[in-house]
Amino acid sequence: MAVGMSSQEAGTVVNTGPLLGAIEVGKSFDGKTWALAEATLTVQPGEIVCVIGANGSGKTTLLRCLNLLCTPSKGRIVFHDEVVGDWPAQAKIPAAKVRDVRTRVAMVFQHFELFPHLSAMGNVALGPRHVLKLSKQDAQQRAMETLTSVGLAKFANKRPGALSGGQKQRVAIARALAMTPEIILFDEPTSALDREMVEEVLGIMATLAQSRMTMVIVTHELNFARQVATRVVTMDQGRVIEDGPADVMFTRPQSTRSQELLRGGDSKLWQ
Amino acid sequence: MSSGYILKYVLEGAPITLEIAAGAWVLGTVLGLVLALARQPGGVLGFGAASVITILRCVPPLVLLYVVFFGLAAEGITIPAVPAAATALGLVEASFTAEYFRAGFLTVQSGQFDAARSLGLSRSSTFRLVVVPQAFIFAIPPLLNSFVALLKLATLASAVGAPEVLYRGQLVYEQSGQITTVVIVIILIYLLVTIPLTRAISVLERKMQRSMR
């Protein structure tokens, strides 16, 4: 699958209920403090939601809850209008259901998390082969197509250790795309990269954005967020402070904290 | 009795020594991996696996060999000396191998589990495709070194009449009375096998480390 392919036509956002959502989700790791406190975030098909917040504001925890990598302490996770989990009432979700959601909700991590014992091709083909149950040949073909789409065809046989940070993250994006997900969650995909490598990753993500791939992007890259986001969500101390259309959020944020966050470290934004 | 004859006679036990060590190593590696997987958090057999490991580590190998060879025979299960020795030493080996694998599992970062789970892989597939291959890389040096240790431990098999190097050394000593020659021959055979083997293991370790970079 090439970057940019999506079930959505460019520019159309169909409001048929949330594709994925966290409803009043809270998470406490120690039973005392809330890393996430009744945060609500819903994503419509075709939306590109950028989540902005300081370190420790609960952005990553929210993303992990959306992908069920982290079990919420309270609240609901909704996928395709169906309540997947409702905590604390429903303590455990069937493993098959969890896997089904994860298969359709891809995630890209801050530190890439490529499998070091596999080549780039092996990393990208793993999901199609063992989760989507494609034949070995078809999985490898899909992996090669996806690696080609992120400009890494010639690195297909390289192990992650032989790749630069930017290349690793592009392989990680290819690994997510190869699953033909309905939505991709990006957890600070450029935070672990040098400045020059940031651009190559943002370039791939911008191409995905143009094709209206549904995405939730936790990022500190405000310029990038302003270019691609259809919605912006600001978070602080485990709570969603403000949630609105990108153009409104970047021009007339309501709360003082949102103004601080959307101004933070990016003077060009307000010029 | 000439030294050449003694050497030839004792050397004929070397393949049996290798057979016992190799059998024990394979059994120990496979069973050790199973025990380590069972001990993982969330593993249903965790307590049982931990108990088995503790018992196997605490029982002297020779006693375990007697249990397998004489004990089972007393219950009507007769196992020839060589497979009995391989089994007993394999069980002992498994208790240590399980720890090598467990240490290997601990070296796999939690992010790797997250990445595998985020793809929709099941718990068993995550271990099979992602965790075990990475843990194996870290477990290989101690696993290979344990083969050298097993070669030496294989001398215990002489206690149940397996015709390995030490057993044949004892036989030829009883015939010749030349204890010094017999002991030197046994030591030389072991040195000739273990020194190149340890060198080869070091080379292999370096190659594997390089391939992971």
What's this entry about, in short?
The complex is a heterodimer of chains A (271) and B (213). Chain A has 271 residues and is α/β, with parallel strands linked by helices. Helices cover 34% and strands 22% of the residues of chain A.
Structural overview:
The complex is a heterodimer of chains A (271) and B (213). Chain A is α/β, with parallel strands linked by helices and 271 residues long. Chain A is 34% helix and 22% strand. Chain A is built from nine helices and ten strands. Chain A has a six-stranded mixed sheet, with helices on both faces. In chain A, helix 4 crosses helix 5. Chain B has 213 residues and is mainly alpha-helical. Chain B has one domain: Orthogonal Bundle (MetI-like fold), CATH 1.10.3720. The interface between A and B is medium-sized, with 26 and 22 residues.
Strand order of the largest sheet of chain A: 6-7-8-3-9-10
Here the CATH topology of chain B equals: MetI-like fold
C-alpha geometry of chain B: flat
Low-confidence stretches of chain B: none
Question: What portion of residues of chain B belong to β-strands?
Answer: under 5%
**Total domains of chain A:** 1
Number of domains of chain B: 1
Query: What class, by secondary structure content of chain A?
Result: alpha/beta
Basic shape of chain A: globular
